[in-house]
Request: fold
Amino acid sequence: MKKIFFALAAMLVFSVNFLPAQDDDQPYLSEDDIKALELVLPIDVPDKPGQINEPRETAEAIQTEIGRLNSQRKLYQLIILDRMNCEPNADIGDVNKANILFKFAHSEKGYLLVLYEVPANGPVFPVFPKGSFIILNLMTNRINTIKEYVNSSQFRKFITIESVIADLNGALDRL
Amino acid sequence: MNRAFAPLLMAFLTVFSINLYAQTSNETPEIKQPEPIQPESKQSEPKQIENKISAVKNANPGDYILLPSGKKYVLTKEEIAIAKGEFNYENLSGVETTVESDGTEIKTISQGHIAYIYPDGQSTHILKTSISFTAYMRYVKETYFLAQYIDYFEVPNEYMEIDPPGFTVFRSSVQYQILSDGIDDMQALTITIYNYDNINRMVKYCSKPDMIWGYISERGAYKPVGESHQIEFDIE
Reply:
């Protein structure tokens, strides 16, 4: 009886005291966590007490920003317009400087989807048809951002025709 | 009998003595240098803690882990409660909040978890560490129902793999939308996950069971209401 009692007591002491201590001694932030915390993305706001003190306006950062703004980079813009209250077959205008990569008009008064490339030497301000309503306006210089969006369920809230999605993906893949 | 019993007793004594030594050795500094009784403001002064789960559990709000770059990872009271498994994600009223000019409330649950609560009742949570993501996903799984999507081969899937972004660290967003069929409202969660176990994926949950991605968009009866609050991760 004594043997069983002491054996159980030894097992109890071991399990209660040692095992949780091993779990709790694990690092709280893994190396990957630390890498993720160290990299600040544009969305990682706000900057206020209690947060990582990220120097936002260092001379180096300003130079990088100036360099980025001065660099001539193409922009890609994806626009979806609701044309329910427009004239039939209404279209966007004044996009002479833009390279239209894909356009789809859904019936006479359905949505209008346009993907175009904005040249590096200046912005394009398309004229939207009177009475139209912007459903989506996504502008970025990362083509991957548009690709991710087009292949997400968010995009499928607006566009459900599979052939349009396939053609749009084709246009993006050609870039 | 006694000979058979001796090894067992020795094992027990060894385990017990090692354990006792470990405990007393940890406690030794406290015994040698008992902290003087100080005013409350002195006691709550932030201090650096070890990067260990046990240290976080025993930390006070404001204590910090020093990152290799020299930056401080400051612990909030919510993060300590999360580490202890005691935090209630349903109640964010006590979380430190700043209000933007458009009425958006920014709640800092931890440095790895920030919630944007929009004026129309929708919200987006940005998660920067896998530990904050894992804790929050536990809550999501307990509270909401997984929505599946049907792929081109008409096979139901739990998640969709998506293209990787232009960065290699972990990031996740949990976007809450309000959907309505004109009679009933429900919440739809779109969870975007980048670089989690080297996989990029999108998952959807709903406050209503047995929903399919198509049914909770304009394809089906439920449509989004309110504004669209899309947060895009991007990096130059």
User: Anything to note?
Assistant: Residues 56 and 129 of chain B are 15 Å apart (CA to CA). The first strand of chain B starts at residue 64 and ends at 66. Chain B has five helices and 14 strands. Chain B touches chain A through 70 residues (CB under 8 Å).
